[in-house]
Amino acid sequence: MCGIVGYIGNKEASPILLDALRKLEYRGYDSAGIAVITEDKKLNVRKIKGRLSNLELLVQQNPVVGTCGIGHTRWATHGEPSDLNSHPHTDVSQTIAVVHNGIIENHAQLRTWLERHQVSFASQTDSEVIAHLIDFHYNGDLLLAVRETVKRLDGSYAIAVACSEHPDLLVVARKDSPLVIGRSEDATLLASDVPPLLSHTRQVQYLEDLEVATLTCDEVHIYTLDGDEVKREIQTIEWDMEAAEKCGFEHFMLKEICEQPKALRDTLRSRLKDGNVSFPTQVETLLKGASHLLITGCGTAYHAGMVASYVIEQVAGVPVEVTVASELRYRVHIRKEGEVCILISQSGETADTIAALRMLKERGIPTIAITNVVGCTISREADWVLYTQAGPEIAVASTKAFSTQLLSLFAIATLLAKQENTALLDALMNLPNMAQLLIDRQEDIQRFAASQFNKTKVFFMGRLVDFAISLESALKLKEISYTHSEAFAAGELKHGPIALVDTSTLVVAICTQPSLYAKMDSNIKEVKARGATALVITFETVHNFDECADVIFRIPQTHPLFSPILSVMVSQLYAYYCSVLKGNDPDKPRNLAKSVTVE
Ligand code: F6R
Q1: Are residues 237 and 253 in the same domain?
Q2: Which of 289, 453, 460, 497 is the most buried (most CB within 10 A)?
Q3: How far is the C-alpha of 207 from the C-alpha of 213, rounded, in Å?
Q4: Which residues of the chain have pLDDT under 50?
Q5: CA dihedral defined by 8, 9, 12, 13, rounded to 10 degrees?
Q6: Which residues of 402-480 form beta strands (DSSP E)?
Q7: Please, what is the angle between helix 260-270 and helix 421-439, to 10°?
Q8: Sign of the C-alpha dihedral, residues 306, 312, 314, 320?
Q9: Catalytic annotation present for 594
Q10: CATH code at position 510
Q11: DSSP state letter for 500
Q12: Which letter does DSSP use for residue 549 in this model?
């Protein structure tokens, strides 16, 4: 997720901007840059792909002197990580510099319009249009030019603007992306988040949506887009640095679980056009022409593939095979006519998934990657890439990346659906709201975890997509709470696992497939008869399990095939609270790494 910072005061801006960018590193980034207005009113930009140390070296070799500037860490969304795509972006005359966090949805139309006005672009980013638009509207009044520009932007933005003609002024604006202004005795600062401000001040003002502000060394004025001044109280930050990075959440994992409605909304937005699901034309042609789909990935990503195999087979009638990448790469793979492979990977750097991709490419099988990191190895090597818009995932256990992978796969299922397309589309569009309803009720799950976290055996069971979510739920619980947890297809209960069920066992039954409620009811009764405690996860409208369950957690109603996005959130929250109650650090579970780049 991009981060923006700014400084205007009486000290040298560049070391302060670099230090502020360091404090935003936790948001994830692939390139960074600063722009400083020098004493002779020139705008100097330094920007580079890679770590902040690259930028520090660049500034050391080629210093910029001035007391007013802006900075940026970029998490690529439009255009790969590169020096040119890094921010700040400038207008053609290098008078105006802009840093941006967010996504400009109408950037393509704006770019075409600007090109018609003889503007030439230096980057592939959506953000560059902002710099050129400000220049287009600029006639000496920077505030007015920014106001006129943001009125033309669709999407989300937090921007900071510097102009060489105004070495004592920064202008900022926001909509749907955060922006905080810090007020110290001898400077005014801005940032996407509080941590960069804390070494200078604890006095802050929050800019709200559709507001712009002018920042000088000792004054801040906030306005509506129509130019009316707004009074905003100054607040005092009481948190310490670490809490500030987590925006008040105790752990990154909880923050990321709670970010899922937004992550789903952003991913959905990238997959919708004119009220229907939309993919690049060649991807759509490839998917519609496929007579056999092969899906692969590791761990949680594999579970997303498994859910998709049930959904796509049911709605599209296309055979889907799903295999973990570490197996696929070594297995004898019999190529099928019309086969297309979908590879799923949050990081895009997982060694086994990369090896499977290379094997498939050697065999001439078309490949589509679903990944969260622009410019990652898998995105560069696959034939086509669909990005999830989860933002950086910092906690080791995957949560929002999983639900956005599911959403992308459900969009594919909706595209390929032979019937029910409208019902699926409606359900898909509603998932972010349903996710929010669920997250709002997390205290129920916290309470249940408080009564169960000491259980030494937890089994998850379900049928069809609920079986796939059982596997993901058991993985989440074992990863961060170190509880021995297993998952099985509920029909397999009698074929072995029931031997382990006793009074010390918690069985979580995921029951969202109406045609199988009666079968699940029998399975729950079987484990209850052996003394297990049964938690049932089902829809809020379903009462089939009222008698047999000890506890029921009801998820908002959606299309049963899309229930995994909601049911998994119950398991994520349950695992999180068990981990915390056991005194573990859920963000950094023992023995695990975020990105498994070795076999
Ligand atoms: C589980 C988890 C792992 C990853 C797996 C694949 O919470 O995070 O199982 O899902 O290592 O990683 P990516 O998706 O980066 O390929």
Answers
A1: no
A2: 460
A3: 8
A4: none
A5: -20
A6: 457-462
A7: 150
A8: negative
A9: yes
A10: 3.40.50.10490
A11: G
A12: -
Same domain for 478 and 382: no
Question: Residue 301's closest CA among 335, 259, 240, 343?
Answer: 343
The Cα 73–Cα 302 span in angstroms is 31
Same domain, 236 and 253: no
How many domains does the structure of the chain reveal?
Answer: 3
pLDDT of residue 453: 94
CB of 560 shorter than 6 A to ligand 1 = no
**pLDDT value at position 244?**
67
From 2, 163, 341, 548, the catalytic residue: 2
DSSP β-ladder status, 68-74 and 96-101: unpaired
Ligand 1 near 346 CB (within 6 A): yes
Which residue range is the domain that position 331 belongs to?
Answer: 247-436
Q: Which of 336, 361, 478, 594 is catalytic?
A: 594
Q: Is the CB of 575 under 6 A from ligand 1?
A: no
Q: Do 232 and 260 sit in the same domain of this protein?
A: no
Ligand 1 centroid to Cα of residue 408, in Å, is 17
For ligand 1, is residue 86 a contact (CB within 6 Å)? no
CATH of the domain at 114: 3.60.20.10
Q: How far apart are CA 231 and CA 213, in angstroms?
A: 11
- In terms of DSSP bridges, do strands 484-489 and 457-462 run parallel, antiparallel, or are they unpaired? parallel
258 belongs to the catalytic site: no
Same domain, 484 and 411: no
Rounded-to-integer distance, Cα 37 and Cα 13, Å:
9
Q: What is the pTM of this model?
A: 0.81
Residues listed for the chain: 599
